[in-house]
Amino acid sequence: MPPSDLVLHEEEYQKIRDVISRLRTECNAKVVFLVDKNGQQIAANGELEAIDTTALASLAAGNVAATDSLARLIGEKEFSILFHEGERDNLHISVVGGRVILVVIFDERSSLGLVRLRVKKGSTELAAILEVMMKKSALPRKAAAGGSPFAEITDEDIDKLFSD
Amino acid sequence: MTFINYAAREINCKIVYYGPGLGGKTTNIKWVYEKTNPNSKGKLISLATETDRTLFFDFLPLDLGEIRGFRTRFHLYTVPGQVFYDASRKLILKGVDGVVFVADSQAARMEANLESLRNLELNLKEQGYDLRIMPYVLQLNKRDLPSALPLEEMKRQLLYKGEPVFEAIASKGNGVFETLKTIAKMVLIELRKGR
Ligand SMILES: Nc1nc2c(ncn2[C@@H]2O[C@H](COP(=O)(O)OP(=O)(O)OP(=O)(O)O)[C@@H](O)[C@H]2O)c(=O)[nH]1
Ligand SMILES: [Mg+2]
């Protein structure tokens, strides 16, 4: 079975946003960012103006995917945390609930110890929300969404996307 | 694996360009990048070697506008075609919604095309996907070269399941958007079917 599509509804989206916003404050971080393992951005909070979040999502996912493979290659299940230290900013990457990547960008206003501690706590909360999200994603779309808007996509709708 | 965000009203789909080394996958995606207006595209990311061979992937996010009130985004990826990068290819295929196979029309590359196609089938299977039911388009690239095999011969050897076929000269842009539009449509039609 291929992995099912990921479907995010308002309720879980709001909860996720609350958690990562609180996490950012608690860590004193610049950015907290949640990405699906396939590189799809789920939610972000913080100083986002200066960052290309789509690119960040894709690269973080690529990074985790490559590192996971490296781990398996040497007989580890995974490396649960990746840490990249820069001159100004640091990048803390961890996997939540096996399927989602949590990225924290922080500078000297915070510290690795603090980030680690808060991420641990936040991850537990996020994992619980994600579990609900995954369960809902696996439902047939009609039941989950109260009627799928996509069932009604016409050929014309699709053609319109390419009309230029 | 399409990502549907009802809260933000977004759909995100992933398309992967597959095929043998030097076949023209990166050239396809670069052309799309150059010819798309700035509002509809994000940054093109190329993780490449010093000699411009794809090392891990190229990535281009495209925003196609709205469909039924949902922002429709396509994430285009290329894999590294060189045989020894197989581990990376497997990673890029994760979560794929549709595949474009970029074949090299030169006679000398037919064996490499066939090997890459078998490799695609196998790597998809490993992840639980089935090429026989996945949105799939065949692009015959480098039609400008004198050593290009005749169209019928290419089709005979590479056609997998009656998929749409496009002749292309990616370095001049010929066939590039036709290919992309067709695979994108196929992915959306798949989405319409739901499950
Ligand atoms: N003559 C001709 N050359 C082409 C065409 N398309 C691409 N090329 C050239 O072929 C070479 C390889 O193209 P790439 O797009 O880098 O190939 P690739 O499939 O990404 O290769 P890998 O990254 O190694 O997998 C480049 O020099 C391109 O300019 C074409 O239609 N005709
Ligand atoms: Mg390439």
Structure description:
The complex is a heterodimer of chains A (164) and B (195). With 164 residues, chain A is of the alpha+beta class. In chain A, 48% of the residues lie in helices and 21% in strands. Chain A has one domain (10-161): 2-Layer Sandwich (Beta-Lactamase). Chain A has helices at 10-27, 53-73, 112-138, 141-145, 155-161; strands at 6-8, 31-36, 41-46, 81-85, 90-96, 100-106. Chain A has a five-stranded antiparallel sheet with strand order 3-2-6-5-4, with helices on both faces. With 195 residues, chain B is an alpha/beta fold. The model of chain B has no long low-confidence stretch (mean pLDDT 93). In chain B, 32% of the residues lie in helices and 28% in strands. The radius of gyration of chain B is 16 Å and the shape is globular. Chain B starts with a strand and ends with a helix. The longest helix of chain B is centred in the last third of the chain and has 18 residues, at 176-193. In chain B, strands 1, 2, 3, 4, 5, 6, 7 and 8 form an eight-stranded mixed sheet that branches. In chain B, helix 3 links the parallel strand 6 (98-104) and strand 7. Chain B is built from five helices and eight strands, in the order ββαβββαβαβαβα. Chain B has one domain (3-192): 3-Layer(aba) Sandwich (Rossmann fold), CATH 3.40.50. Chain B has helices at 25-35, 86-93, 110-126, 151-158, 176-193; strands spanning 3-5, 10-18, 45-48, 54-67, 70-78, 98-104, 136-141, 165-167. The interface between A and B is large, with 44 and 45 residues.
Q: List the helices and strands of chain A in order.
A: EHEEHEEEHHH
- Strand-residue proportion of chain B: 25-35%
DSSP E strands of chain B, number: 8
Low-confidence stretches of chain A: none
Categorize the overall geometry of chain A.
globular
- Calculate Rg of chain B over CA atoms: 16 Å
Biggest interface, residues from each chain: A-B, 44 and 45 residues
Count of domains of chain B: 1
Question: What spatial form of chain B do the alpha-carbon principal axes imply?
Answer: globular
- Count of DSSP H/I helices of chain B: 5
Distance between the termini of chain A: 37 Å
